[in-house]
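User: Fold this; tokens only.

Assistant: Input:
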Amino acid sequence: MLKKNVLRRKSDFTSIYNRGKSVGDRYVVVFYRKNNLPYTRKAFLASKKVGNSVKRNRARRLMKESFRLTDFKIPEGYDLIFIARNTIVNAKCQDVKKSLESALKRTGVTKKA
């Protein structure tokens, strides 16, 4: 992921949470909003409810890898926040990928690659 493609500022997160839409699935919740930029920004989060730092980092790695492996094309100009649910702790990468694809499909912002 390029540096410009990562959400970092608190104001960006707040605006997505307040004015964006969300879709949940078994392992992942996706918040999304149009950003009117020529690129799409992403963030992968795991709260302390997921577990200790090892489990949180694994959850983030699973989501990033699942997103990388998805065969969906996200059009430019969106902000996406992927939040891990605590059920992700014992999940396999393939299960997380299916959950993430299902959530992305329901957002309506994806196109099949």
